[in-house]
Amino acid sequence: MIAFWLIAAIATALAVALLTAPLAARGVAQVESASRHAQRVHRAQLDEVARDLAAGTIGTAEAEAARIEIGRRLLASAAEDATPHATPPRRAAALVLTGLVPVAALGLYLAVGMPDLPAETVPPEAARAIAAAERLETRLMIEPDAQGWMLVGETMKRLGRYDRAESAFAEAAKLLPNDVSVALAAAEARVLAADGRVDEVSAEMLQRAPDQPTSRYWLAERKLQQGDRDGGVAALEALQASDPSAPWVPMVQSRLAELRGPSEADVAAATGMSAEQQQAFIESMVTRLASRLETTPDDVEGWRRLGRAYRTMGRTEAARAAFARVAALRPDDAEARAALQD
Fold first, then answer.
1. CA–CA distance from 30 to each of 22, 23, 97, 115, 203 (Å)?
2. CATH T-level assignment (fold) for domain 125-260
């Protein structure tokens, strides 16, 4: 913590110095510039008087009077320009900033910052992997190589740095634009970086290989996110049936279980529970449904089931919030309108 405050103090001092240096110096620079300009003008006038006298266009008395007048102006302008008109306000602004910036920065940090938040800890093995990937990234920027970018992307994806994985796969895709596997890797990293949201760009990339399990899974999720629950469930069921022994089947089964709600086995088990156990079981199911809807906010029927569950549990405000989501997705839904009017 001491090191943090020391670094913050040094950074603040540097920032203040950068802000105030131009203000403190600019007034003096302007004074010197104005003074030099006035001197050049008046000296040119004196030279002109001398030329006119030599040419006989003016007499000696006129020349002397002109020299006196120009000399007076030169002295007056020099005295006026030497007066630091602009300096005090600028120096005052510099002094104000010197005190205001650190105080404002400290106040803002204490108001919205988290000084007690522990620093992010990265396991040593993960830190070494990230450092190696970053060194490879640096080399690849000089000597691009598709396989190298793929290695960086897979490393970052494995470590949960999905945004950086997406960038690495995108670089590989530039070098191998016709490689479908690279496009799928980039699409999945993009989806994971967006917390599971399948946007139009990702969907277009997945459509390049619509029969691949990765594409089928995330395109099914896109249907769910667009409110097509039946289509999404059917797509996941078809994916599960296509290769029951595949290593990704448990993930598909888990997702289907979330969508379908409690199975007959769950219901049978709940019948043998005490009232307290049944309540805990129901609340866990509702919590899972609510968590799932955070990633599939366009699932109208999911919000409807959540609203009904909250209403049964007596959580009126939560039920209204769920039905408000239904109404936002389907403004003409009679059940949602009735729930919001109660």
1. 12, 11, 21, 44, 61
2. 1.25.40
